[in-house]
Amino acid sequence: MIYLDNPATTNYKPFSVKMGILEALSKKYSANPGRSSHKLSINAALKILETRELLTKVFNLNNSNDVIFTSGCTEALNLAILGSIKTGGHIITTIYEHNSVLRPLFKLQKDGLIELTIVKPNNNDEITIKELELAVKPNTYMIIINHTSNVTGYTMNIADIGKFAKAHNLVFLVDGAQSGGHINIDMQKNNINMLALAGHKGFYGPQGVGALLLNNAKLQPIKFGGTGINSEQPMPPVISPEAYEAGTTCTPLIFGFDAGINFTIKHFDKINKKTTELTKFLITELSKIKNIKIYNKKNYSAGVVSFNLGDLPSNQVANELCETYGICVRSGLHCAPLVHRHFNTIEQGMVRVGIAYNNTKSQLKKLVFALNKIIKN
Amino acid sequence: MIYLDNPATTNYKPFSVKMGILEALSKKYSANPGRSSHKLSINAALKILETRELLTKVFNLNNSNDVIFTSGCTEALNLAILGSIKTGGHIITTIYEHNSVLRPLFKLQKDGLIELTIVKPNNNDEITIKELELAVKPNTYMIIINHTSNVTGYTMNIADIGKFAKAHNLVFLVDGAQSGGHINIDMQKNNINMLALAGHKGFYGPQGVGALLLNNAKLQPIKFGGTGINSEQPMPPVISPEAYEAGTTCTPLIFGFDAGINFTIKHFDKINKKTTELTKFLITELSKIKNIKIYNKKNYSAGVVSFNLGDLPSNQVANELCETYGICVRSGLHCAPLVHRHFNTIEQGMVRVGIAYNNTKSQLKKLVFALNKIIKN
């Protein structure tokens, strides 16, 4: 099997990630941090705090309390959007968003709580300040962008958009599902107020964990339960992170996430260089195929390359790649319908290749070989 | 260390649970089920389906689609409560509830969406149909009960309450956080419409996973994102389980949960017998201590025993147990404030001992010895 569906989840999980999870389940740590006050509970709490401090450092935050662990990037985005509603306000977003941004927004719009503008890209399929400026209204309070598109790999300029957000006094929420681990993100420098991350993609961690990082952002909780603080009160004070992490802390996955983050820090340059080189190589090779349509040829660091072979349904291509050649890619729609509408691929979908650190040039050559065979038949 | 904080999370995790998690992270399964259509994604999806079928069988449901995986019992309860609001309706619950039930309800009450009645127990600290009947109003649509109290171990009669719920045409939601794995629950026989479970307590699974099981229950999603179905629609149809499980499936923890469920099924009689015997033994031994107040002496199967030593603050007792004797228990408030109000322990809290399968009589003897020493000093 050649696995090239890494933007969905990386197939390769480092040994340290697995060991991290097992450590959390060992006698020393298997307890409930932040609830009891015995040694095991404190052992686990201190380890969790280390991960908060790690993320604080990596994304340049001031306070480890601004790191909220979630069950994934979807919960992080839901918390960011549903937890910061300004009734009657206006939100700007783009056609590049994933359903984990669009659907909470559509829900709020449908309920009459917010106005929504979905910005379309320019003729180069890019979103720039020019497009965004046109969308600003007096009641705009938030801008949400997908840092790197899970569909095409297109990566937006967060420095520019951060300046734009600051100039208009907007809350700036970045969906870092595909960029986290692949691209260095400085939240303070780029005026990012909220950054949503997935543990299981660019960080090579386990599925089921993510984080929402806050930088001068105010939120109301959207999930209610035990918080380990102020148990006697009907609602606990809105203190980060406790107010947003109701329920038992997911120590196994946070320990695994921690190991994944450390893995990407340690090998950052190597991972980045290899992913970029392989992506460039693939785009070059794919470009030689007649009638191929490649949807983004400029952004490499997240390792995402999407294409179609003439009019062939993307699902047919993907199925043949898997059945005949043992190559796993994703096809169809990629949970981001407006990207497909923009590129006119709602029917055809797209074949998406996602390259990770452990992929090789030889695997990509096999992919290109297989695609050429598929076209011929 | 003697770990007796098992109602928070079991310290012991079976080998099979750890191996299950590692399997999910192996090359064969580490993919995104329900999204892509390649072999690895299907491998993972089939394993997840097996766990749904297992839970369907164990709790006597008709359809494996009625099993919704969540990030824990808290999310399951939030989904059950916030996903089934009838505006202007009335909900009955009890003082035995955990904050993961009370706080979503207080939020709805505060927002003016529902009326709420919190039923108090009778003179025996029990909730019976008699108390519940008095709470029914014409607009009552739901009753929520904590099957086994995490504070005292008190276990309600779900058969009786199920009949009551059916007679009044109420949605019956059971918080099974502490009973799941310890007590057999037949959802159809007991007219339970929704059952919330935690993976990391009675099932000896990992922290970070739970489930909401549905039996003729209707729900709206409370988290929005990619569902793997109908990606092109602003909101997917409300189909179970996809509509409620937005985001990447947490395969590692579900694989671990599966192994935990199988562990409890295989050893059910043995676990139950041992927990019951140890709990009875502990209550007998504790009863010999002068000035001890034990808050429930009748329910054994969940292994929960709570007490106070005269007027000693529960935190002081717990700290001394940990510092001097290496015994881990929980103290203070237990995320269920109304239980403490009922027993007049808001200030003092309670010392809670939670017994699991791997605990021994000798450990409990050491605990009793330590408590006697603490009283003497």
Summed up:
Chain A is an alpha/beta fold. Chain A contains 11 helices and 12 strands. In chain A, helix 2 (39-58) packs parallel to helix 7 (251-266).
Description:
2 copies of one chain form a homodimer. Chain A folds into 2 domains: 2-10 and 268-376, Aspartate Aminotransferase, domain 1 (Alpha-Beta Complex), CATH 3.90.1150.10; 15-266, 3-Layer(aba) Sandwich (Aspartate Aminotransferase, domain 2), CATH 3.40.640. Chain A contains 11 helices and 12 strands. The first copy, chain A, starts with a strand and ends with a helix. Chain A has a 7-stranded mixed β-sheet with strand order 2-8-7-6-5-3-4, sandwiched between helices. Chain A has 377 residues and is of the alpha/beta class. The mean pLDDT of chain A is 96. Chain A has helices at residues 15-24, 39-58, 73-82, 99-110, 129-133, 158-167, 251-266, 268-287, 314-325, 337-342, 361-376; strands spanning 2-3, 67-70, 89-94, 114-119, 140-146, 171-175, 194-198, 210-214, 292-294, 304-309, 327-328, 351-354. The radius of gyration of chain A is 21 Å and the shape is globular. In chain A, helix 1 packs antiparallel against helix 7 and helix 8 (268-287) packs parallel to helix 11. In chain A, strand 5, helix 6 and strand 6 (171-175) form a beta-alpha-beta unit. The longest helix of chain A has 20 residues, at 39-58. Chains A and B meet through helix 1, helix 2, helix 3, helix 4 and helix 7 of A and helix 1, helix 2, helix 3, helix 4 and helix 7 of B.
